[in-house]
């Protein structure tokens, strides 16, 4: 059967490679299709303006777009417009309705007081870009009601080393106030997509994709400093941060209960792999 990955950046390419390793034909849709590895058939297409052509035997479609710019307009072009184009292609080309998964973000929840979030938490996005992400979700479910939404937390992994770089450069800071983050290693995000699209039972409509340990960013920075044998940054008592965001703690129970097993269940295993140089970031 054929798998289509709409948006073959780093995450989409890793996902496509995993489908290919299972023996599936994989087609990747992106503007610069020549950058794709040989295991993925490329189709050069701008999904913000063009409707792609899909193989008739397509059984899985993954939409994993990334914006050119972090603005509402940039997000609408990357997410909402691509959903419309891909849905049109499915109607035009697919012999039978495929499973469809859309990669979204936990930003659609808008929670910033450090409380727990799960799939039942109301979606109340507070930023203009998160509003567009939710619009794309709703657009997809209106057009393809049986689609699955995977809301990912902060992705880190090969080549995604901003936090590590800041510690190495000695510019990382630690706040006295808690700032909870929920993360997922790039490889686990890709593996979760493959898992949900290949399970025997049809997946639920919404899943949260984060690891087992939402944590205060301070713990992550301290862990990285110790791992790099560098001084732990001093705690800053910034009164302006006292009223700032506490972040949120995302619950992954639904993904776990689907049978998914993490390779990197916490940031400790995941960042250790990054520091060891395991994996590559795809162009």
Description:
The strands form 5 sheets. Strands 3-2-1-4-5-7-12 form a 7-stranded parallel sheet, with helices on both faces. Strands 6-15 form a two-stranded parallel ribbon. The chain has a two-stranded parallel sheet with strand order 8-11. The chain is an alpha/beta fold and 283 residues long. It has helices spanning 10-21, 72-93, 128-143, 162-168, 186-198, 217-227, 253-257, 267-275, and strands spanning 2-6, 25-30, 41-44, 58-63, 99-105, 113-117, 148-152, 154-156, 174-175, 180-181, 183-185, 206-209, 215-216, 235-236, 247-250. It has 8 helices and 15 strands. It is 34% helix and 21% strand. The mean pLDDT is 95. β1 (2-6), α1 (10-21) and β2 form a beta-alpha-beta unit.
The structure class reads alpha/beta
Number of helices: 8
Termini distance? 26 Å
Give the overall average pLDDT. Answer: 95
Number of DSSP strand runs: 15
| Sequence stretches where pLDDT stays below 50 over 5 or more residues | none
The rounded Rg comes to: 19 Å
What does the main sheet amount to? 7 strands, parallel
What fraction of the residues are assigned to beta strands by DSSP? 15-25%
Gross morphology: globular
């Amino acid at each position: 059967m054929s798998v289509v990955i709409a948006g073959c950046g780093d995450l989409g390419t890793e996902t496509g490679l995993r489908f290919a390793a299972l023996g599936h034909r994989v087609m990747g849709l992106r503007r610069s299709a020549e950058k794709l590895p040989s295991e993925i058939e490329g189709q050069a297409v701008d999904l913000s303006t063009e409707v792609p052509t899909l193989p008739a035997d397509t059984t899985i479609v993954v939409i994993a777009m990334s914006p050119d710019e972090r603005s509402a307009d940039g997000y609408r072009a990357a997410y909402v417009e691509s959903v419309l184009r891909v849905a049109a292609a499915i109607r035009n080309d697919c012999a039978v309705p495929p499973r469809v998964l859309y990669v979204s973000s936990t930003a659609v929840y808008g929670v910033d007081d450090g409380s727990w979030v799960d799939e039942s938490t109301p979606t109340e996005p507070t930023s203009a870009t998160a509003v567009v992400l939710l619009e794309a979700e709703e657009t997809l479910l209106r057009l393809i009601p049986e689609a699955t939404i995977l809301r990912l937390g902060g992705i880190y992994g090969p080549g995604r080393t901003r936090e590590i770089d800041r510690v190495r450069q000695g510019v990382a800071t630690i706040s006295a106030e808690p700032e909870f983050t929920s993360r997922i290693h790039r490889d686990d995000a890709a593996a979760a997509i493959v898992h949900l699209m290949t399970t025997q039972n049809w997946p639920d409509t919404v899943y949260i994709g984060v690891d087992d340990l939402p944590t205060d960013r301070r713990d992550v920075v301290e862990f990285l400093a110790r791992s790099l044998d560098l001084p732990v940054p001093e705690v800053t008592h910034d009164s302006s941060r006292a009223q700032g965001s506490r972040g949120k703690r995302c619950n992954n129970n639904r993904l776990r209960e689907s049978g998914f097993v993490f390779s990197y269940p916490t940031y400790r295993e995941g960042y250790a792999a990054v520091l060891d140089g395991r994996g590559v970031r795809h162009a």
